[in-house]
Specification:
Distance between the termini of chain A: 41 Å
Number of strands of chain B: 11
Mean pLDDT of chain A: 91
Mean pLDDT of chain B: 94
Number of helices of chain A: 0
Strand content of chain A: over 45%
Order of helices and strands of chain B: EEEEEEEEEEE
Structural class of chain B: mainly beta
Strand content of chain B: over 45%
Number of helices of chain B: 0
Low-confidence stretches of chain A: none
Shape of chain A: globular
Oligomer: heterodimer
Radius of gyration of chain B: 13 Å
Shape of chain B: globular
Structural class of chain A: mainly beta
Number of strands of chain A: 12
């Protein structure tokens, strides 16, 4: 069965310092993986996606993630945090196939950015 | 192009009532999926509609239902509301429902049951 585990429920960084949000996945086949961001009282915005092409995926707003099959990880990084990055981040794995199209969400990581 | 539109943004209902939420997908998208977001359970899949047919359903009671119209707009209905139905309901629009090709989410409807 497909699942994702976000290893940190809260992460706090200072503005200008690197961001690392950790995600491990479980999948019986090569997965499609995503990171979504949710700002307060907003919907979900796609940051980036991995669909078995390049293992290093670049997304919007300077975020990137690396798919590591040997470690079953898909960690999200950003070199320098900005105040506007404060939000909740979700690691997501997809199920696809006829009657099973859906996204399976991790429990979320709340990122706080201190001035 | 216009994004995914969910109406209303906020709702307050009383236990036992029913409620209908609406989602208008991106023009040309034929798949609409619904998700429930609560602090305790996180984001959970409700159902997916494609070309007016429910193609996929999550583990929710029969009080949760939906439909899709010929213009791809979708409605979600919850009957006999319970306090635990208080949540943010999000709909996601996609061209054909294949997750790898991307889903676009609306801003959600915040339902409060009192």
């Amino acid at each position: 069965a497909q699942s994702v585990t976000q290893l940190d429920s809260h992460v706090s960084v200072s503005e200008g310092t690197p961001v690392l949000l950790r995600c491990n996945y479980s999948s019986s086949y090569s997965p499609s993986l995503f990171w979504y961001v949710q700002h307060p009282n907003k919907g979900l915005q796609l940051l980036l996606k991995y669909t078995s092409a390049a293992t290093l995926v670049k997304g919007i707003n300077g975020f990137e993630a690396e798919f590591k099959k040997s470690e079953t990880s898909f960690h999200l990084t950003k070199p320098s945090a900005h105040m506007s990055d404060a939000a909740e981040y979700f690691c997501v794995v997809s199920l696809y196939g006829g009657a099973t199209n859906k996204l399976i969400f991790g429990t979320g990581t709340l990122l706080a950015v201190q001035p | 192009k216009a994004g995914v539109t969910q109406t209303p943004r906020y709702l307050i209902k009383t236990r036992g009532q029913q409620v209908t939420l609406s989602c208008s997908p991106i023009s040309g998208h034929r798949s609409v999926s619904w998700y429930q977001q609560t602090p305790g359970q996180g984001l959970q899949f409700l159902f997916e509609y494609f070309s007016e047919t429910q193609r996929n359903k999550g583990n929710f009671p029969g009080r949760f239902s939906g439909r899709q119209f010929s213009n791809s707009r979708s409605e979600m209905n919850v009957s006999t509301l319970e306090l635990g139905d208080s949540a943010l309901y999000l709909c996601a629009s996609s061209l054909d429902g294949i997750p790898a090709y991307g889903y676009t989410f609306g801003s959600g409807t915040r339902l409060t049951v009192v």
